[in-house]
Specification:
Elements lengths: L3 H7 L10 H5 L13 H12 L10 E7 L3 H9 L2 H4 L7 E8 L11 H18 L2 E6 L4 H7 L6 E11 L9 H8 L18
Keywords: Oxidoreductase
Pfam families: Nitroreductase
Protein name: Nitroreductase
């Protein structure tokens, strides 16, 4: 059985060019240590969000979070896709991430989703620095989340995040997911997405 420590080493990205070490070692775990996130841990994560860049400094991001063993946690679990429910209960901490759709002037904030993404990038690097893994999930029923959490008009839940300190046991997830955890990480080459001078 692959140990968690070996899994973390195996998941360090094999870069074509040298990048910041925290970016190399970041991956999206489905197993986590039993260690709980403290209030200070949570505050540090959201402070990294607070200082993220945003268009016109509008800071449109909004979060709902909960610790395992609470009613809020169970409610977030209800909003996840069936696939994500198979493993997300291993995380000691869950979040829903959303954004404010309009500006203060009432016009559409076209960049709000972009800004939410930037804030989650900040949080991801901060979490990695703290030994915390984040698994961002597209598989969330935003309509159910809006209903369960009474999300106000003008806001949109976009994604969910499972968070916890690296660790845990691979046997805590089904066999098909264990294989995914062990699989080699791959990325498309830069030439497929970065074009100099003209779109190719």
């Amino acid at each position: 059985m692959t140990t968690v420590e070996q899994l973390q080493l195996d998941n360090i990205a094999k870069n074509d060019y040298q990048i910041y070490p925290l970016l190399k070692q970041r991956y999206s775990p489905r197993i986590f240590s039993d260690q709980k996130l403290t209030e200070k841990d949570v505050n540090r994560l959201f402070e990294s969000v607070r200082w993220s860049a945003s268009s016109y400094n509008r800071q449109p991001w909004r979060f709902i979070f909960a610790h395992k063993g609470t009613e809020g946690y169970d409610k977030i679990m209800e909003c996840l896709s069936e696939f994500n429910q198979k493993w997300a209960g291993n995380a000691p901490f869950l979040m829903l991430a959303g954004y404010k759709k309009n500006t203060e002037e009432g016009t559409e904030n076209f960049h709000a989703l972009h800004d939410l993404g930037l804030s989650l990038g900040n949080m991801t690097v901060q979490a990695e620095y703290m030994g915390i893994g984040l698994h961002h999930m597209a598989g969330v029923d935003w309509k159910k989340a809006h209903e369960i959490f009474n999300v106000p008009e003008g806001y949109h839940i976009a994604t969910a995040i499972a968070a916890g300190f690296y660790g845990g046991n691979l046997n805590d997830i089904p066999e098909d997911l264990r294989e995914q955890e062990r699989a080699e990480r791959t990325r498309i080459p830069q030439t497929d997405f970065a074009f100099e001078g003209a779109w190719k």
